[in-house]
Design a protein that fits this description.
about 450 residues, nine-stranded mixed sheet, 12 helices, extended
């Protein structure tokens, strides 16, 4: 009770001092309180500002996550209300805020950040972001334990037609995982081969190997394999041994390679692919003939850092990059061989090469789409009207049409590359810097 009275007495005394005291003293007290009140107001404003800013950032991040999540679940269509109504993977500029936010939120192949968005409802330990192409048994004791895929470190993928069945049989390496892309629709004719039941068979009528590769060889699916062989079916392998080939590829530090072509091959397009008898591997060619002249100053394809599309071999890292380079709608792959060096994980003049000691024969058999039809000869007594009735609509020259389509795709690919380079202001061509350094060294030697 006394304590309560003492507090009340203290307040009365204070109020009396403020109301009835000396006017000058009262004014000075008020002046002393002004700085204190100003500091309190500033502190309150800072707290309000930081709280509001934090809430705004959290709202933006959550909104962006929801947009990206919606885009992933609905075909990667990005709904950006600030002018980016585009597809995430192809058209949204790299420096766009949402694209930058996507890079932070969804780095490719990162389980931790991916699980926080699209896999938020799964416990972390159950997530498996990788797969393979190994066959699993339907039952048996071994199926209850972890399947060992260590015996097959390499993958061989070939587009095949039944006409090249025995040639493909000679190419197939028994210790590889085999995947056949049947472009002619005929899969039943392969079952008599002893290895066929252990291979993966995918059927799609009249599709190219780049079409198949883009859809069925995703880097996360083939990441268990050290090397990916993406070969054509018309290759002679009498002088090729895959084990020795891969030993050379590893010892030479090659990320992308191909076996050299026998000089007697039917179809040779670039001199760099021709076998050099006295070498184990070569990485460049010197040739001053033709429209493309290759000399000591040549720094790019097809003079160096180049392999052709009929028999490339990729390391795991190189394939991850190459898969993204393959255009989903450009199925013939023309022009892509000139850009493979960008996927070589380093200097393409060192990381890309042609192995001479293990070489193949390119037979140049064109089977995809069938051969060009030859009209039947009309007899002398057959009138033109009857000939038209018998033959019906003039037959299409499939080879000419395929070549026309390939040429158009080459033009489109080049335009896309140039556009991508122009729009991506953060991208720097790594080989221009290398070329400048080498040019500078040559000039210093000459001086």
């Amino acid at each position: 009770m006394k304590a309560f009275k003492s507090w009340r007495w203290l307040f009365r005394k204070r109020n009396a001092g403020l109301d009835g005291g000396v006017q000058g003293k009262s004014g000075s007290n008020k002046m002393k309180q002004l700085p204190f009140l100003g500091i309190v107001c500033i502190v309150m404003l800072v707290i309000v500002y930081r709280t509001t800013n934090y809430q705004y950032q959290q709202t933006e991040t959550k909104s962006t996550k929801l947009i990206l999540l919606h885009s992933i679940n609905d075909g990667m269509q990005l709904v950006d209300h600030s002018s980016c109504l585009m597809v995430l993977e192809n058209n949204c500029p790299i420096n766009h805020p949402l694209r930058m936010m996507e890079t932070k939120i969804l780095p490719f192949g990162t389980v931790e950040d991916l699980a926080s968005l699209t896999l938020v409802n799964l416990p972390h330990g159950i997530i498996q972001p990788r797969s393979d192409l190994e066959l699993r048994p339907l039952w048996s004791s071994s199926s209850r334990s972890k399947v060992d895929v260590s015996s097959n470190h390499n993958l061989l993928a070939i587009p095949v037609g039944i006409k090249q069945k025995y040639n493909v049989d000679a190419i197939v390496e028994k210790n590889f995982t085999i995947i056949l892309f049947h472009y002619d629709g005929n899969m039943d004719g392969w079952w008599d081969l002893d290895w066929s039941s252990k291979a993966i068979h995918i059927v799609a009528q009249n599709q190219t190997k780049w079409w198949f590769a883009k859809r069925f060889l995703h880097p996360d699916v083939v990441s268990v394999y050290d090397y990916i062989f993406l070969w054509d079916e018309d290759l002679g392998v009498e002088n090729f041994h895959p084990g020795r080939y891969l030993d050379i590829m590893k010892s030479e530090g090659l990320e992308i390679s191909q076996p050299a072509l026998d000089p007697n091959s039917t179809d040779i397009h670039h001199r760099i692919t021709i076998r050099k008898r006295m070498k184990t591997v070569h990485r460049r060619v010197w040739d001053l003939r033709g429209s493309v002249k290759c000399s000591n100053t040549s720094e790019g394809p097809p003079c160096t850092g180049f392999v052709e599309g009929m028999a490339p071999v990729f390391s795991r890292s190189a394939w991850r990059c190459t898969w993204h380079l393959i255009q989903n709608d450009l199925v013939h792959g023309w022009g892509m061989d000139m850009k493979l060096g960008y996927c070589a994980q380093g200097d393409r003049s060192k990381k890309v090469g042609v192995i001479d000691s293990e070489f193949i024969v390119h037979q140049g058999i064109q089977t995809l789409g069938g051969g060009s039809p030859s009209p039947k000869k009309a007899s002398k007594d057959t009138s033109p009207e009857e000939t038209v009735k018998r033959q019906g609509t003039p037959a299409v020259d499939t080879r000419s049409e395929i070549r026309r389509q390939s040429t158009w795709e080459l033009h489109v690919f080049r335009e896309r590359w140039d556009k991508a380079v122009k729009e991506d202001r953060t991208w720097v061509d790594p080989f221009k810097n290398i070329q400048r350094r080498r040019t500078g060294k040559r000039k210093s030697r000459q001086s």
